[in-house]
Design the sequence.
C-alpha cells in the first residue's frame, strides 16, 4: 500500500539514492525473515530434504489446473506493473511533470487504504469466480479507456483524466483480484507444502512482467508518435485481460 507513495517521495532524488533506499528495505526484510522463519529439522538429511522438495514440486507441476491458474493470474501482475512501466511513459508523452506522477501514486495508495477492506468483504460475499472476473474487467476497462483517450489532444483536463482513470481502474481491479486469488492457492495445495505453490505463482508473475514489458516497450516507444500508435499498448493490454476474466473462473480448485 505504501509502495507507490514512497516511490513518489523518491522522485526528486537521484537514482543512486533511490536504489540504495530499495536495497536497505530488502536487507531489513531479509534479516527479519532470517530470524522469523523456523530452523530446518537437524534430523533430516539434506539429501532427503532435496528429494522431498523435488517430489513435491513435480507433483505440483502435474496439477495442470493450478499451473493454468498461475499462468492466467500472472496477467494481473503484468497489468498492475503498468503503474510503474506504462504510466510514466504516458505522462512523458503528454508532457506532464513528475509532480503529476507523484500525485497519481498518492491516489493509488489512498485508494488501497480506504477501499481494500470493504472491497474484500464484498468479493467474499460474491464468490471467487465473480470477483476475479470483475477485477480483470475493471483492469480491461482502464486499459481500454486509455486506448481511446490517448487519441484526444492532451491539453487541460485531458492531460490528467486518462492517467487518473487508469490508476483508479487498475487499483480497483487489483483489490478485487488479490484477496480472492491468493487464498485459493491454499485450496490447490490441499494440505501440502504451500511454499512451492506460492513460489510458482510469483515466478510466473515475474516472467509475465519481464516478457510482457519486453513486448510492450517498443509499443510504448511508438506511442510517442501522433495517431493510432498511442493506443496500441493499451489496446493490447485490454485484450489480454479478457483471457483471465473468462478463464480463471473455470479453473477454480474443486474444493471451492
Sequence:
Amino acid at each position: 500500500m505504501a509502495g507507490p507513495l514512497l516511490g513518489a517521495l523518491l522522485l526528486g532524488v537521484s537514482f543512486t539514492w533511490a536504489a540504495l533506499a530499495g536495497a536497505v528495505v530488502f536487507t531489513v526484510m531479509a534479516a527479519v525473515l532470517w530470524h522469523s522463519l523456523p530452523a530446518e529439522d537437524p534430523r533430516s538429511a539434506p539429501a532427503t530434504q532435496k528429494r522431498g522438495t523435488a517430489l513435491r514440486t513435480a507433483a505440483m507441476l502435474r496439477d495442470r489446473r493450478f499451473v493454468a491458474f498461475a499462468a492466467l493470474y500472472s496477467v494481473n501482475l503484468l497489468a498492475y506493473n503498468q503503474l510503474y512501466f506504462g504510466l510514466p511513459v504516458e505522462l512523458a508523452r503528454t508532457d506532464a511533470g513528475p509532480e503529476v506522477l507523484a500525485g497519481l501514486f498518492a491516489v493509488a495508495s489512498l485508494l488501497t487504504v480506504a477501499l481494500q477492506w470493504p472491497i474484500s468483504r464484498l468479493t467474499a460475499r460474491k464468490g471467487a469466480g465473480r470477483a476475479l472476473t470483475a477485477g480483470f474487467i475493471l483492469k480491461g476497462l482502464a486499459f481500454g479507456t486509455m486506448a481511446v483517450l490517448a487519441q484526444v489532444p492532451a491539453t487541460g483536463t485531458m492531460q490528467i483524466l486518462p492517467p487518473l482513470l487508469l490508476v483508479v481502474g487498475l487499483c480497483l481491479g487489483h483489490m478485487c483480484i488479490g484477496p480472492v486469488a491468493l487464498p485459493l492457492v491454499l485450496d490447490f495445495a490441499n494440505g501440502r507444502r504451500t511454499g512451492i505453490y506460492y513460489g510458482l505463482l510469483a515466478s510466473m508473475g515475474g516472467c509475465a512482467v519481464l516478457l510482457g514489458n519486453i513486448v510492450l516497450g517498443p509499443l510504448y516507444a511508438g506511442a510517442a508518435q501522433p495517431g493510432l500508435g498511442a493506443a496500441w499498448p493499451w489496446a493490447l493490454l485490454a485484450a489480454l485481460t479478457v483471457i483471465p476474466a473468462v478463464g480463471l473462473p473455470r479453473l477454480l480448485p474443486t474444493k471451492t
